[in-house]
Specification:
This protein has three helices and 34 strands. The chain is globular and about 55 Å long. The protein starts with a helix and ends with a strand.
Length: about 450
């Protein structure tokens, strides 16, 4: 099965880590950016409904604050607290009361997920699974979560939200991470769309992408609009933050646009890839777009920061691949990618391959066919979840000294729900734990050491 971005956002189970596939062609309109200085217009001025309570500890290098961990969407956490493979089941939150509809984000001693039916956001103590609070989005805002993703920064938890009926507007909801009370809301009065992704924070600006193509820059603390851009036709990817203050967004047709987070200024967009394309990821200040080139091969297109001077901007480098890449993790100078194995007996069978981004050489490939749910990496280990009952698997990031590597660990993740498997969902690393979120089996959290 292939999934579009809209499929990934609207569908329920087994879509957490599925990459964007078979997207519609987009016609790029002329760029029109509206910048707001000082106070925002009344229609987009979000009220602060409660004073800020005592907040958890700020986001650190030991946290997993967004969809793919850091603001570069790398899926990589080199923290020593999650190194190695000595991981054991610490706690679970059963699906009977706490089904999970989003990857977990981790910060300040807490983990946050979108709960049942996308109506609630839930917080747990990362250490022992104590349920800390539930925020009912319908009761607080008359909205519900529109995307299967959260982001946390500066003591707030951000979620994209949609109106409860087709006539309403969607937007962004910010909750206090300490107790789940409402901090502010932002309403999209420009295009009336939903917030596809809660975005990333560059400096003190929250950059968010909406399903109509709207891109906004908001004050991360208050939600006040600083600028907006309506040049894209539909569905940008999750924003990827770069060290130079820009944010990269992949558009529906696979082109990458670069926007300055501070003022919304747009740089020329990249060339359109020839085939299906996966979500972009940052690499040492550059942006990598994985894509297919034919039925059995693909490439990684690299766009260097500040290199686009004219549109369409060609990649500064391409790395050919003997497979079609899907979920991509960038761990230092190594890219780890899941890919559909065309020689396997079933169409949903995958392998995982590591490639050196400097030389382009293949480092290793997993030995067995894996129905991949998600892939993340620590400083020394690649973790792979499954979609159809195979165990959670750990592979050495540096390889095994051979072209084909076997798992070095398959830790117990708890009894599965009869309708699902406990290792089928998204993976999040942080603060000494690995959190597995599934639609039917709830949360399964492993502790290291």
């Amino acid at each position: 099965m292939t999934w579009t971005v809209r499929d990934r956002l609207r569908a329920g189970r087994h879509t957490f880590a599925v990459v964007a596939r078979d997207r519609r062609v987009l016609v790029r309109r002329s760029i029109t950016v509206s910048r707001v200085s000082g106070a925002s217009p009344p229609a987009t001025t979000p009220p602060t409904t409660t004073p800020a309570p005592t907040t958890p500890a700020p986001t650190t290098a030991d946290d997993w604050p967004g969809l793919r961990g850091d603001a570069g969407e790398t899926g990589y956490l080199p923290s020593p607290t999650v190194a190695g493979t000595d991981a054991h089941l610490a706690w679970t939150a059963p699906s009977a009361t706490h089904a999970a509809q989003s990857p977990a984000v981790i910060a300040g001693g807490r983990t946050f997920v979108v709960g049942p039916d996308a109506d609630v956001i839930e917080a747990y103590a990362i250490s022992d699974g104590t349920h800390l609070w539930t925020a009912d989005l319908r009761a607080l805002t008359s909205w519900r979560a529109s995307a299967s993703d959260l982001m946390t920064h500066g003591g707030l938890v951000y979620v994209g939200a949609s109106a409860l009926d087709d006539a309403g507007h969607g937007g962004i909801v910010a909750l206090h991470a300490a107790d789940g009370t409402l901090a502010w809301t932002y309403v999209d009065t420009h295009d009336g769309g939903d917030a596809a992704y809660p975005g990333v924070v560059q400096g003190d600006t929250l950059v968010t992408a909406f399903d109509t193509g709207l891109i906004t820059g908001l004050d991360a603390a208050t939600g006040a609009e600083r600028w907006h851009d309506t040049s894209s036709a539909d569905y940008p990817s999750p924003p990827v933050a770069l060290p130079n203050g820009q944010v990269a967004l992949e558009l529906v047709n696979g082109t990458v646009s670069f926007v300055n987070a501070a003022d919304g200024a747009m740089a020329p967009a990249s060339a359109q890839p020839s085939g299906d394309h996966a979500l972009p990821v940052a690499w040492r200040g550059d942006v990598i777009v994985p894509s297919s080139t034919n039925a059995r091969s693909g490439q990684l297109a690299v766009y260097a920061e500040n290199s686009c001077r004219a549109e369409p901007c060609p990649p500064t480098r391409t790395i050919p691949l003997p497979f079609r890449p899907w979920t991509t993790v960038v761990a230092g100078d190594t890219a780890v990618m899941s890919w559909n194995d065309p020689d396997a007996p079933t169409t949903d069978s995958f392998r995982v391959t590591a490639v050196d981004l400097v030389s382009g050489a293949t480092l290793w490939t997993s030995d067995s066919v894996i129905d991949v749910g998600d892939v993340v990496a620590s400083a020394d280990t690649v973790w792979v979840s499954s979609s159809y009952g195979a165990p959670l698997r750990a592979f050495p990031l540096a390889g095994c000294g051979a072209a084909i590597c076997s798992p070095v660990a398959e830790p117990d993740v708890g009894a599965p729900n009869p309708d699902d498997t406990s290792a089928s969902g998204a993976l999040s690393l942080g603060e000494g734990h690995l959190v597995i979120t599934t639609y039917s089996s709830g949360l399964h959290t492993l502790a290291f050491g």
